[in-house]
């Protein structure tokens, strides 16, 4: 292979809206939005603006040092080389505006995060809802929630994310909502964030069918003794850990994808290492079960308050180690590169996703379950002022100036998860590099792609 290969063509909308790169005949420099990853026989070059991925063979690497002629022209045309004075951030802002115009929010709601309750059968010390007064959705509110969905999504496909507390504490609300939706002819599927304890192997298939359940995220905080101690379930009977493991097997057998989330910090690293190995033995042959490791308190902007730079670096190194263990155990889904550049960050600024709280309030972010509402399911209209607050971007920080992640990074001022610090940034870039290698492997071995596609893309 002696020529540059286009591994991924990038986002066609971006290419069309941007047009060819600027500055023919001008003095050029490398775009700051590039990420490079060496391979065995060359270099992967990823453009985080256009989402194009190239492979440059080793023979052409010297020419890349100081590109000339046809190579220089190609790199300029495709936004790898940009004019010296170009304000690249301004280009991204303009592009986002255009993307929003050509691909606006849907005219219907495409995702509802439903809090069936804020109560939970577990009592994890780290839970951000700890100490909240439990609120549970009544049957009447469940009916109104279903009617709201029917009115605001009609016959369009949509998704429900069951959230809590522990959503299964109020499975009656889930049954009621889904039965009413089905009677109304709705096209929906659902996913759930749960501790998994309140499933039962004998009813997993019926649950999947009644709720159109395609995916569950289940948190495991440790090996059996530690898990049972941390979860401290309200109604223990035997080993809670063994019960959840049996439920994961049953859900996967029923066709539900299960993503296991391993919460860790410096205090439980050894136990999580053992758990990651154990889960590989337990679920390594199960294609519908995967796992990932998450640093505790990384969301809610807390790490800077309590952790030194050295501690953060150790945590990121641990996360990489856990990912390797999970990968070796057959539990990592391969990282993939995005196929489309988004003009919005998440549900909070999407314009077509909402939360529904147990008492019928409407919100925009699952982390805001007690305030920050924009309306109610039993009243017309939404509060545009609060919606605008959610859409407001966090001001750029000095590190944004030459950060390759900028085109895909839209931290919201109101987001409790928007903190940016160097270790986290490097981890995100490392994640992108892994994804670049995955895409290259898929290009070389297309049959691998089918395996990676076992998991469904949600609605
Ligand atoms: S907020 Fe952080 S990750 Fe995002 S563009 Fe700025 S430096 Fe990069
Ligand atoms: S604002 Fe932050 S926490 Fe809320 S939905 Fe968006 S990314 Fe998640």
What this model shows, in words?
- The chain is of the alpha/beta class.
- Among the domains are: 5-102, no CATH class; 111-328, Aldolase class I (TIM Barrel, Alpha-Beta Barrel).
- Helices cover 37% and strands 17% of the residues.
- The chain has helices spanning 12-18, 61-65, 69-77, 88-102, 139-153, 171-183, 204-211, 224-231, 240-253, 269-283, 303-306, 309-328, 384-391, 422-444, 446-452, and strands spanning 5-8, 28-30, 34-39, 42-47, 52-57, 81-83, 111-115, 157-163, 187-194, 213-220, 257-264, 289-295, 353-356, 361-363, 375-376.
- The strands form 3 sheets. A 9-stranded mixed sheet has the order 12-11-10-9-8-7-13-14-15.
- Strand 7 (111-115), helix 5 and strand 8 form a beta-alpha-beta unit.
- The longest helix has 23 residues, at 422-444.
- The radius of gyration is 24 Å and the shape is globular.
- The relative contact order is 0.12.
- It binds iron/sulfur cluster (2 copies).
* CATH architecture group name of the domain at 111-328: Alpha-Beta Barrel
- State the distance separating the first and last CA atoms: 39 Å
Bound compounds: iron/sulfur cluster
Biggest sheet, open or closed, and with what strands and sense? 9 strands, mixed
Instruction: Count the beta strands.
Output: 15
**Overall pLDDT, averaged?**
92
Number of helices: 15
Strand order of the largest sheet: 12-11-10-9-8-7-13-14-15
Q: Strand-residue fraction?
A: 15-25%
H/E series:
EHEEEEHHEHEHEHEHEHHEHEHHEEEHHH
Outline the low-pLDDT stretches.
none
What gross morphology would you assign? Answer: globular
Please bin the fraction of helical residues.
Answer: 25-40%
> Measured on Cα atoms, how large is the radius of gyration?
24 Å
By secondary-structure content and strand pairing, the structural class works out as alpha/beta
CATH topology of the domain at 111-328: the name is TIM Barrel
């Amino acid at each position: 292979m002696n020529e540059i290969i286009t591994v991924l063509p990038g986002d066609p909308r971006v290419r069309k809206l941007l047009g060819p790169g600027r500055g023919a005949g001008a003095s050029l420099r490398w775009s700051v939005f590039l990420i490079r990853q060496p391979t065995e026989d060359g270099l992967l070059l990823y453009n985080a603006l256009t989402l194009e991925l190239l492979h440059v063979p080793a023979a052409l690497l010297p020419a890349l040092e100081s590109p000339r002629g046809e190579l220089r022209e190609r790199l300029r045309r495709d936004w790898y080389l940009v004019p010296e004075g170009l304000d690249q951030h301004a280009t991204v802002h303009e592009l986002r505006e255009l993307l929003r115009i050509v691909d606006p929010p849907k005219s219907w709601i495409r995702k509802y995060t439903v809090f069936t309750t804020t109560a939970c059968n577990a009592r994890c010390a780290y839970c951000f809802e700890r100490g909240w007064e439990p609120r549970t959705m009544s049957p009447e509110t469940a009916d109104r929630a279903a009617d709201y969905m029917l009115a605001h999504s009609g016959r369009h496909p949509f998704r429900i994310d069951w959230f809590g507390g522990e959503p299964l504490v109020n499975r009656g609300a889930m049954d009621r909502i889904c039965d009413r939706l089905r009677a109304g002819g709705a096209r929906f599927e659902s996913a759930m964030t749960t501790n998994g304890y309140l499933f039962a192997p004998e009813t997993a298939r019926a649950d999947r069918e009644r709720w159109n359940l395609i995916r569950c995220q289940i948190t495991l905080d440790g090996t059996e003794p530690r898990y049972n101690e941390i979860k401290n379930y309200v109604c223990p009977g035997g080993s809670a850990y063994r019960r959840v493991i049996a439920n994961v097997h049953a859900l996967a057998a029923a066709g539900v994808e299960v993503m296991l989330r391993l919460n860790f910090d410096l205090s439980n690293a050894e136990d999580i290492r053992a758990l990651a190995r154990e889960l590989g033995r337990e679920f390594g042959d199960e294609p519908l079960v995967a796992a990932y490791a998450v640093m505790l308190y990384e969301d809610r902007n807390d790490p800077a308050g309590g952790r030194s730079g050295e501690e953060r670096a150790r945590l990121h190194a641990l996360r990489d180690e856990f990912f390797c263990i999970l990968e070796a155990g057959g539990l990592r889904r391969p990282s993939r590169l995005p196929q489309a550049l988004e003009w919005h960050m998440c549900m909070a600024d999407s314009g077509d996703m909402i939360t529904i709280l147990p008492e019928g309030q409407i919100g925009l972010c699952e982390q805001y379950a007690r305030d920050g509402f924009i309306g109610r399911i039993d009243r017309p209209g939404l509060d545009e002022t609060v919606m605008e607050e959610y859409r407001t971007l966090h001001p750029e920080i000095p590190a944004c100036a030459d950060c390759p992640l900028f085109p895909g990074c839209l931290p919201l001022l109101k987001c409790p998860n928007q903190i940016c610090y160097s270790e986290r940034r490097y981890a995100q870039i490392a994640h992108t590099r892994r994804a670049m290698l995955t895409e290259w492997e898929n290009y070389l071995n297309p049959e691998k792609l089918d395996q990676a596609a076992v998991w469904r893309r949600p609605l």
